[in-house]
Amino acid sequence: MSDAGREFDRLVGIMDRLRGPGGCPWDAEQTHGSLTRYLLEESYEVIEAIDAGSPEMLKEELGDLILQPIFHAAIAAERGEFAITDVLVGINEKLVRRHPHVFGDQIIGSSSAQVENWEKIKAVEKGDKRKSALSGVPPQLPALLRAQKLTEKAARVGFDWEHVDQVFAKVLEELGEFQETMVEGDQERMEAELGDLLFAIVNLGRFLAINPEEALRKTMTRFTARFEHVEGSLHGQGRKMTDATPAEMDLLWEEAKRLEAAEKSA
Questions:
Q1: CB-CB neighbours of 166 under 10 Å
Q2: Residue 131 lies in a domain
Q3: How far apart are CA 13 and CA 38, in angstroms?
Q4: What angle, 0 to 180 degrees and rounded to 10, lies between the N-to-C axes of helices 143-156 and 212-236?
Q5: Distance (Å, rounded) from C-alpha 36 to C-alpha 43?
Q6: CA 25: distance to chain centroid?
Q7: Long-range contacts: 250-258, Cβ < 8 Å, 24+?
Q8: What is the pLDDT of residue 129?
Q9: Which end of the chain is more exposed for a tag (fewer CB within 10 A), N or C?
Q10: What's the pTM?
Q11: Cβ neighbours for 117, distance < 8 A, ≥ 6 positions apart
């Protein structure tokens, strides 16, 4: 057995001990539902580690993430539903089945062709049980990511624009409609038009091969760093942000942007 196999078995054994008699009360009382938040949190912490560019941080966070399916499989095994081995058999068989160009004699010449073939194989496996071409997109996904996946699925069956200029025009159209509702002051319509605007922007990102969820996440990271620079600079002067004028904060904000640009070019 490889080192990875031994450590995997050790992890499964540790989980069994934690859940078993004389184990950890907290671990023993967890359910699929109670663990949902941790699955999400660990996934986002892995993304944070990737953004930070830290191998050590990524190694640790991947370990925390791997623990989650082990935990869920242990709960399922106790109920006689399935074990972690069944999970591994399932994903191994699926990967082989959905890569006939690697494990078979099919020829696929590009990444996009592979995505299309994957979806065809997936449809056959599901036995056409899905009611819509949009089926299979979990409603629990973050809104921007869900919007992207919905538009991707719609595009695969031809429900799409032909050129990026058309998508950009749609963004401008939705922006204009949102502006109209602002003037009217209708809160319900403003919400609807803002949603339409965001959805159009997601489509624009898809046409330009930009992941909107990732783009917004990076923007928030930049915003946080710049805000903390403004905050820290003022604190260094013995002042609070509420003591500063908008013009002073704007100058410090621009300074943060210059420092950010200098770090990138260094």
A1: 12
A2: no
A3: 21
A4: 160
A5: 11
A6: 32
A7: 253/226, 253/229, 255/229, 256/225, 256/226, 256/229, 256/230, 257/226
A8: 63
A9: C
A10: 0.70
A11: 100, 101, 106, 108
| CATH value at residue 22 | 1.10.287.1080
Q: Return d(Cα 159, Cα 105) in angstroms, integer.
A: 32
Amino acid at 24: C
> How many angstroms separate the CA atoms of 41 and 36, rounded?
9
Residues 6 or more apart whose CB falls under 8 angstroms from that of 166 comprise none
| Contacting residues for 16 by C-beta, under 8 A, at least 6 apart | 74
Whether residue 127 is predicted with pLDDT greater than 80 in this model: the reply is: no
Other C-beta atoms lying within 10 Å of the C-beta of residue 84: 19
Tens of pLDDT along 141-179? 889 999 999 999 999 889 999 999 999 999 999 999 999
Tokens 């057995």 locate to: 1
| Count of residues making up the chain | 266
Q: What is the DSSP letter of 242?
A: G
Give the span between the Cα atoms of 192 and 103, in whole angstroms: 48
pLDDT at site 99: 93
Query: 106 in helix, strand or coil?
Result: coil
| pLDDT band per the 50, 70, 90 thresholds, residue 248 | very high
Q: Residue 164 corresponds to which amino acid?
A: V
Same domain, yes or no, for 92 and 102? no
Domain count, the chain: 4
pLDDT tens digit sequence for 7-66? 999 999 999 999 999 999 999 999 999 999 999 899 999 998 998 899 999 999 999 999
Instruction: Give residue 256's domain range.
Output: 213-265
